[in-house]
Amino acid sequence: MAYFENVGKIAYEGSRSTNPYAFKFYNPQEVVAGKTMEEHLRFAMAYWHTLTAGGSDPFGTDTAVRSWDKYDGMDKAKARVEAAFEFLDKMNLPFFCFHDIDIAPEGSSLREFYSNIDTIVDLISQGMKTSGKKLLWNTANMFTNPRFMHGAGSTCNADVYAHAAAQVKKGLEVGKQLGAENYVFWGGREGYETLLNTDLKLEMDNMARLFHMAVDYAKEIGFDAQFLIEPKPKEPTKHQYDFDAATTISFLQKYDLDKHFKLNLEANHATLAGHTFEHELRVARINGMLGSLDANQGDMLLGWDTDEFPLNIYDSTLTLYEVLKNDGLGKGGINFDAKVRRQSFEPEDLFLAHIAGMDTYAKGLKVAAKLIEDRVFDDFIDKRYASFKEGIGADVVSGKATLASLAEYALNNENPRRNESSRQELLKAKLNQYILAE
C-alpha cells in the first residue's frame, strides 16, 4: 500500500527550480570540504513528529490527515512502519530515529509492551534490510506516561525507577538488534518544581546510577553505540538537571560518565536556555562532547518548544561552521526533530517541510565551508589574541607566569598596548556577504 501516493521521489534540481517537490541546494553527492553532502549531514527522520504526531495542541485536537489513522493498536503501528520506509525512500533520507512508544503501543503491561516492541522491531529490521536505511538513534520515552510524573531516573518512587530501567534495558537490546549508531537519553521530566520536597543530591546520584547501568549493560550485550544526552532547560520541569551543554557536561564529568557520553544538541532547546545554537555547539565542541544534532528552530516570540523546521540560513551556517570545525559528527547526524504546523495538515506537507529543512542545512554547509576555507573568522581571531603568542602572554598560556611575575610586568608597563576594535559589525557583514554570495 502507498501512503504518500501523490508524491514521487524527491530529486535535486538546483536553485533555479520552481518545483516545490525538489531539492534546490541539497545535492547528496556534491562534494563539499572533502566529503559528500550526504556524508556531512547524515539526515534523519524523527518518527514521532513525522508519523505519530497529529497536530494537537493544548487548545485543540488532531488536525493531521494520515491514511494510517484508519487503523488502531498494532495494526496502526505496522502501517506506520510501511509509511516510514516509503517516506525515507522518497525523501532520500538515510537515517531515522524513534522513542519506544513511537513504534509500538504500551498495552496493559510491561510484558505486553515488550511483545509489541518485538513484533514491530522485526518489521523495522526487514525494512532496513531491503531499503538500506539505518537507525541513527533510539531512546525510551520516560516522560509521557503518568507513572513518570515525578521523573524517571530522578523519581522519588523506586518502583517507577525500576520500570524506567526496564525500558532502558529493552531500548538497548532494540538498538543492538537494529544496529543503532547512537542511543539517546532525553530527560523529559528529570528535574524538580520546588526544593521544599526534593532530595536534590539523591535524584542526581540516581540518574547517574541509571546511566552507569546502561553503560554496563551495553558492554554486556556487545552494543557499541555512542551514548548521548540531550540537554533541555525547561518545559515541562521548571528546574531541569540537563539545563544546557555546560550543565550537562559538568554532570557527566562529576559522575565519571564523560568518557561514555556525548551531547545530542537541539536548536530550540538552546533558545529556551537563553543561548544561541552555535553557543551550545561551541561549548560541546571545545570539550570534545559534540555528538549529534536535533535540527529545528523556535519562535522568538514564544517561550516554549515549538519544534519548527529549520529555515534560517544564518543559523544553519553557524551551526554547520561548528560541525565542520569539529571534523564532523562521527556516529551522530542531523535529526529533524521538527513538526509541521498544525495548519499544515496534509501528507504532502511532510515532504515540503523536510525539503525546506534539508535545503537550509545544505546551503549552510556550503557557506560554512567557504568561511573556513577563506579563514574569515580564524585570521581575525588569531590577530585579536596575538598578545598571548609572545612575551608575557606566551608565559600565561604556557603556565610559566605567576601572580608575582605578572605584577612585576604590569608595574614596568604602566601603558599597556592599545586595545583594538572587535569589529563585530564588520564580521557580521562578512557573514552576510558569504551567505548572499554563495
UniProtKB/TrEMBL annotation:
Broadest EC class assigned to this enzyme: isomerase
Compartment annotation: Cytoplasm
Cellular component terms per the entry's GO annotation: cytoplasm
Domain of life from the UniProt record: Bacteria
Annotated catalysed reactions: alpha-D-xylose = alpha-D-xylulofuranose
InterPro entries: Xyl_isomerase-like_sf (IPR036237), Xylose_isom_bac (IPR013452), Xylose_isomerase (IPR001998)
Active site: H99, D102
Cofactor note as given: Binds 2 magnesium ions per subunit.
Binding site for Mg(2+) 1: E230, E266, D294, D337
Keyword Transport on entry: no
SUPFAM superfamilies: Xylose isomerase-like
GO biological process, one term: D-xylose metabolic process
Keywords: Carbohydrate metabolism, Cytoplasm, Isomerase, Magnesium, Metal-binding, Xylose metabolism
GO MF assignments: magnesium ion binding; xylose isomerase activity
Entry's EC annotation: 5.3.1.5
Binding-site positions, Mg(2+) 2: E266, H269, D305, D307
Cofactor: Mg(2+)
Complex formation: Homotetramer.
Family: Belongs to the xylose isomerase family.
HAMAP family: Xylose_isom_A
Entry protein name: Xylose isomerase
Species whose genome carries this gene: Paenibacillus rhizosphaerae
